[in-house]
Structure to design on (594 residues):
């Protein structure tokens, strides 16, 4: 059930997702705002355009799989799922609260529809995505596996074990999107533990490498198009994003990696979103 | 009991069981981490090449790949030496497998000090402790090759969550019946007795039967229990042994901290406190040597079990 919304419509959805992220984090009182806002456009394009999925039938066997490896940006996943119709948007206010299906980091045991993986320990999701793609390939199934990784996360060694395995097994049914916002908790990635030359690293591991502005709906539509897939190679899209994208006062500020807005800040931020759009 | 006994390695039982399970169910997948032959997985790789995937020396990735395959409806079986299978991968097992509660079987090969000359780095002596503390995990440690074969089939076909299955490298007496009904979570009383109970797991079950023979010669009646499933543990058989014999000796090729000894002690202290003497590695790494030399030095045999029994008999309640 592919959504063919216009770019304008997708931008409206991204705005709604950003608003929901800010509100749910303000309600929770803790959580990760920066990365969640930075990925709003990626999630919009995936859930509202690119993924073949049926929100009314979350376990549909032929659905494309989206694995979120960086569990800490759960708020943007939840907002995307709710807006796509997997569950009611009012539930977003339960984020991080007792008995909520919206755990601080995604937990499948709480039964949230549309959630593919419990994750939060960095460097693991890409291996799971490789396993899914390998299973699909061995069944000659047509569904595609998508995986969203953080850039700081790429410092985990097991990511590169997975990168090697995906190329070795020729998983052209796998696309990894790297959220390249250049920031992690201690500061810029290049001063904490340098990742560059990042595209060359992936190329040398045998991947088809794409780069795009991860906060541009237009560029994301092109980068995630099936036509960019190279037969026999997994694809990585290095999506250059801005942490906190949409709120000028927090954009590019790593202090907002793991912080939630106060109620007052949330009102200000949402006001800014509405005026800028 | 003492009829001519064949010797067979646990890993061979694992390999045979895996092939049998693979024949029953085409969703069974093998994941190899380079040492396919030395863990007994070569049988499966030869029988079902299209369902065997080489993943290289990358155990953490193997666990994640297994998780992804399980989410896609497969039943992956991954095996390497227990030291790597359980310890190098611990966080990946905790989150990707256990928190997601996925149907994956991990074969922990080269269990115990009987690995021998390779030395401490390759002797899995902490794997039970680390695996059994994880929620949703099942931990199985069969007594011989035949039971390992049946346990492998049962783990693959019956358990809906993650399983850690432990087995050894050395050929050891293969004494259990091929017709046994192997039930995960049920201990087996192999010998009745009233003066004390020896609860053992893995190859030391055989040594416990030998120890019971020796004790019988001294007029001591020892019950012997094979606790092949460490988790979920058969509390009933342990509590019954505590209440009926008043003394328990545990025996394992593993650290007594966190292993079978701890498991048994946790149950008896909760339900029926009796002294528990523990035979196992006492907070110590192994070393190089012939398996029989190491087993003797560290007292992980019938003689060691008898010594522990005599030390504890006067403490019996």
């Amino acid at each position: 059930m592919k959504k063919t919304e216009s770019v304008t419509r997708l931008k409206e959805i991204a705005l709604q997702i950003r608003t929901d992220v800010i509100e749910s984090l303000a309600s929770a009182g803790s959580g990760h705002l920066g990365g969640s806002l930075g990925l709003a456009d990626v999630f919009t394009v995936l859930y509202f355009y690119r993924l073949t999925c049926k929100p009314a039938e979350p376990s549909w066997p032929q659905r494309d799989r989206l694995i979120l490896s960086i569990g800490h940006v759960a708020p943007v996943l939840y907002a995307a799922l709710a807006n796509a119709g997997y569950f009611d948007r009012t539930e977003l206010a339960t984020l991080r609260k007792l008995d909520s299906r919206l755990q601080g980091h995604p937990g499948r045991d709480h039964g949230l529809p549309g959630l593919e993986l419990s994750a939060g320990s960095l460097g693991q999701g890409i291996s799971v995505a490789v396993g899914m793609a390998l299973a699909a390939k061995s069944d000659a199934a047509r569904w595609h596996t998508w995986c969203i990784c953080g850039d700081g996360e790429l410092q985990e060694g097991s990511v590169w074990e997975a990168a090697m395995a995906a190329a070795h097994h020729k998983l052209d049914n796998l696309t990894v999107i790297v959220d390249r916002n250049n920031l992690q908790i201690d500061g810029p990635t290049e001063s904490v533990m340098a990742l560059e030359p990042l595209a060359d690293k992936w190329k040398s591991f045998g991947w088809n490498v794409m780069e795009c502005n991860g906060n541009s709906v237009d560029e994301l539509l092109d980068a995630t198009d099936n036509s960019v897939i190279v037969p026999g190679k997994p694809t990585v899209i290095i999506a250059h994003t801005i942490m906190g994208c949409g709120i000028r006062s927090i954009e590019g500020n790593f202090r907002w990696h793991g912080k939630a807005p106060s109620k007052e800040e949330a009102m200000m931020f949402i006001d800014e979103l509405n005026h800028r759009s | 009991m003492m009829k001519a006994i064949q010797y067979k390695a646990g890993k061979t039982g694992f390999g045979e069981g895996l092939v049998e399970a693979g024949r029953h169910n085409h969703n069974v997948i093998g994941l190899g981490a380079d040492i396919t032959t030395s863990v007994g997985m070569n049988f499966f790789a030869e029988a079902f090449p299209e369902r065997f995937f080489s993943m290289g020396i990358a155990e953490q990735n193997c666990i994640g790949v297994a998780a992804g395959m399980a989410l896609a409806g497969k039943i992956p079986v991954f095996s390497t030496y227990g030291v790597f299978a359980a310890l190098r991968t611990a966080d990946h097992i905790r989150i990707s497998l256990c928190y997601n509660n996925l149907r994956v079987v991990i074969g922990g090969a080269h269990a115990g000090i009987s690995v021998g000359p390779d030395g401490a780095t390759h002797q899995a002596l902490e794997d039970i402790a680390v695996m059994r503390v994880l929620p949703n995990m099942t931990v199985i440690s069969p007594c011989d090759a035949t039971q390992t074969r049946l346990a492998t089939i049962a783990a693959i076909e019956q358990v809906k969550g993650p399983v850690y299955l432990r087995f050894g490298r050395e050929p050891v007496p293969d004494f259990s019946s091929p017709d046994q009904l192997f039930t995960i979570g049920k201990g087996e009383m192999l010998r009745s007795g009233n003066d004390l109970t020896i609860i053992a797991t893995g190859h030391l079950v055989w040594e416990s039967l030998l120890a019971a023979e020796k004790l019988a010669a001294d007029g001591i009646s020892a019950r012997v229990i094979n606790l092949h499933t460490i988790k979920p543990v058969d509390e009933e058989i342990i509590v019954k042994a505590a209440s009926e014999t008043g003394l328990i000796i545990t025996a394992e090729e593993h650290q007594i901290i966190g292993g079978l000894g701890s498991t048994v002690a946790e149950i008896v202290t909760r339900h029926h406190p009796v002294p528990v003497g523990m035979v196992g590695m006492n907070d110590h790494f192994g070393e190089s040597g012939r398996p029989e030399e190491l087993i003797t030095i560290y007292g992980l045999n019938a003689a060691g079990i008898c010594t522990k029994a005599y030390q504890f008999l006067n403490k019996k309640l």
